[in-house]
Write a structure and sequence with these properties.
The complex is a heterodimer. Chain A is of the alpha+beta class. Chain A is 32% helix and 24% strand. An 8-stranded mixed sheet of chain B has the order 4-2-5-6-1-7-8-9. Classes of the chains: A alpha+beta, B alpha/beta. β12 of chain A pairs antiparallel with β3 of chain B.
Chain lengths: 485, 215
């Protein structure tokens, strides 16, 4: 009999990805650790809006095949030390409230408020905790000149609410769970009503929460003034390599830090300024590519070739050199991300193990960063319709273990290795040999006419003996779907 | 008459060469680099090892690519198939149905692979590189690819979209072979250059599942 382990600290559902995080640490060196949108709540507490990079973290989680706690813990440890406390929840106030409780309890590590265990504790938080967490809130509301907020009257309303709770003998917030935000507002004012609403909301909308966005960090940039105009790639390459080395020294050489995009602003011989982007398909570690910086230089080379081609096409009737010389340029890191240590260490010790059967995905990703074209990777999908029987996936994507790939692809056994993205209409074949393969009725519930989705598939052999994969629809029109290359 | 430099007339060198050849034979007996599980096909590729370039003649429409595919089924190292067929994409389910592990075989579309994908040939990330009917592939490209394959111990398949002939040779290829589906029940292989030349036939059922009869 199969046993199922219920992990109390695990999330309840697949969609419960937290929208915010509150991190308590005395040594936070980077407030943008989890998201580019952050707020400094106090000296020791930082709020991060994960919603802005939700897809990125979901992808990382999928890639590592781990839980959220396992994904974030090494990253937080690396940047905040071992004694950090991080609370993940739907609303920033919920993060702060539960963080306050965990600080008081001398907790440590990650707490997901959507998990069963933490949700139960949260519901039964005592009033002391609920009121104590509000002390910093008043400062922020005053700082942003929140409409209708006055520190003194807010204090008075808090005292009134505390007296009320004492009088009727409520021990924790759950005892008052039947009260809605409107009734709290009527009795104790707008702000306590809002706090009550934030505490139990299931929505990630801020709802007047005083979010003061921290100014984005300034990313490093280097500038090169050329002593004389340069237009040959061999010279540009040498100078760019020097600039990347300079950029590397300005950038923190941390393995967590990876670059997504760099901006290359070029001033041409005719004083025209052109901005081009060096973008990397997979996060790129600049200092790990030292001293050659092959990856960045390959990307710069593709951009240079493309730029020269465009400029030549534009200026072909002008008396200008074939390759437009550069006068100066500026390189700036415009997007960077912090990866969990497991992600950059994941395949590190498998390098060179190709012949032994290991697939070094990291090496393949690094190679892909140097190429102008992406690799295509595929996986089988559970569908009988030819076009939907497979899907393009990212390099190293975990296969769906529940899917019997071979069984699902069996129907493709007699089909060609390459197919037309859009089937080509052909004339009705005459006097040729053909083999009937199958009849597919596509997703008939999606089309207006049921008959239109029915296709009869054949292998067709023409007079020259060439084989092709064709189908006939119910109107009798023939289409070529693939070639037996 | 040309004369040999003194250092190459040394008999000990000849002995070294003989022992090296014997060692190579011994190694190949232990592990064949390309293995399909089809005896007749494996015999053709017995001598092929890391650093070799195999040239295939497979005109379109003759289903001949199923033969090189047989050599990419069993425990292959990371490999890449560079294709360039106008308007065509990879029909992945068909590859999976033939037993190819798509976790190890990657695809990339390029008509001029040496120019467009140069970094791919400069690294040993992929131990098998299949260049399928490139639009541009000069003899200089061939020299570069075979040199890199030797340097990095890769096996390169170069698939041509025409039948190869004995009239025009290829000094870089260790094996030159034409393959096609002949009739409904067999595949034909014609080795033009290799350890043994000649034509062999493989029953259709050894390569793929029989699909029925023409009408």
């Amino acid at each position: 009999m199969k046993t199922r382990i219920i992990d109390l600290s695990d999330l309840r559902g697949g969609d419960d990805f937290p929208a915010y995080a509150a991190i308590f640490s005395t040594t936070v060196d980077n407030p943008f650790l989890l998201s580019p949108t952050a707020m400094r709540w106090s000296d020791d507490i930082t709020l991060s809006r994960l919603e802005d990079c939700r897809q990125f973290w979901i992808e990382q989680k999928k890639k590592l095949r781990c839980k959220l706690t396992e994904l974030f813990d090494p990253l937080l440890r690396q940047h905040c030390g071992d004694d950090y406390i991080a609370v993940f929840a739907t609303h920033p106030w919920q993060c702060l409230l539960y963080l306050h409780y965990q600080i008081r309890q001398q907790g440590r590590g990650i707490y997901l408020l959507q998990s069963r265990l933490d949700q139960n504790i949260y519901r039964k938080l005592d009033w002391e905790c609920w009121f104590a967490a509000q002390s910093q809130l008043g400062t922020h509301l005053a700082a942003i000149n929140a409409r209708g907020f006055e520190a003194q009257s807010f204090g008075a309303l808090q005292a009134r609410m505390q007296r009320f709770i004492q009088r009727i003998g409520l021990t924790n917030t759950q005892d008052m769970n039947s009260a809605d935000a409107n009734s709290v507002t009527r009795r104790f004012g707008k702000w306590l009503g809002l706090i009550w609403q934030w505490s139990f909301t299931g929505s990630s909308r801020l709802q007047s929460f005083p979010w003061i966005k921290l100014a984005p960090e300034r990313l490093p940039a280097v500038r090169r003034e050329l002593e004389y105009p340069v237009n040959q790639w061999s010279f540009i390459e040498v100078l760019l390599r020097e600039d990347l080395e300079r950029l590397c020294t300005l950038f923190r050489q941390d393995d967590c830090m990876h670059i997504n995009r760099m901006l290359w602003e070029i001033t041409l011989f005719n004083d025209q300024k052109i901005e081009v982007e060096l973008s990397f398909r997979h996060p790129y570690s600049l200092h790990r590519d030292r001293p050659g910086f092959d990856t960045a230089l390959y990307q710069a080379r593709y951009i240079y070739d493309d730029l020269m081609r465009k400029l030549q096409a534009r200026d072909h009737d002008l008396d200008l050199p074939d390759n437009m010389p550069f006068l100066c340029w500026r390189i700036e890191v415009c997007e960077r991300i912090l990866l969990a240590p497991q992600l950059w260490e994941l395949f590190a010790n498998e390098s060179g193990a190709n012949e032994s059967g290991q697939v070094d995905y990291q090496q393949i990703m690094n190679l892909q960063n140097k190429l102008p074209i992406a690799f295509e990777c595929f996986q089988a999908s559970a569908s009988f319709y030819p076009e939907q029987s497979f899907a393009r996936v990212a390099i190293g994507a975990a296969p769906d273990e529940t899917l019997d790939h071979y069984a699902w692809s069996c129907s493709a056994m007699n089909k060609p290795l390459f197919y037309f993205y859009s089937p080509e209409p052909i004339e009705k074949p005459s006097l040729v040999e053909k083999i009937f393969l199958q009849r597919d009725s596509g997703q008939w519930w999606l089309s207006a006419s049921t008959l239109q989705s029915i296709r009869d598939y054949f292998i067709l052999k023409d007079r020259d003996g060439r084989l092709s994969w064709v189908f006939r629809n119910q109107q009798g029109a023939w289409f070529k779907q693939g070639e037996f290359y | 008459m040309a004369s040999l430099p003194a250092q190459f007339t040394d008999h000990s060198l000849q002995r070294h060469l003989q022992s090296a050849r014997a060692l190579k034979r011994e190694q190949s007996a232990h592990a064949q680099a390309l293995h399909s599980g089809i005896d007749a096909l494996d015999d053709c590729f017995r001598q092929i090892g890391p650093g070799d370039l195999v040239e295939w003649g497979i005109p379109p429409g003759l289903n001949g690519r199923l033969i090189p595919l047989q050599l990419l089924k069993q425990d292959i190292p990371p490999s890449v198939w560079i294709y360039h067929h106008h308007g065509l994409g990879v029909f992945a389910s068909s590859w999976i149905s033939h037993g190819v592990d798509l976790q190890r075989l990657f695809f990339i579309c390029s008509g001029n692979p040496v120019r467009e994908l140069r970094p791919l040939f400069l690294e040993d990330t992929f131990k098998r590189i299949i260049i399928d009917a490139p639009r541009k592939f000069s003899s200089g490209d061939m020299a570069f690819v075979s040199q890199q394959a030797r340097k990095q111990g890769q096996i390169v398949f170069l698939i041509r979209h025409f039948f190869l002939s004995e009239k025009r040779g290829n000094p870089y290829a260790s094996l030159r072979i034409n393959t096609w589906q002949s009739g409904q029940h067999s595949f034909s292989l014609h080795t033009i250059k290799g350890s043994s030349t000649g034509r062999i036939s493989l029953p259709y059922a050894t390569v793929a599942e029989d699909h029925g009869h023409y009408n």
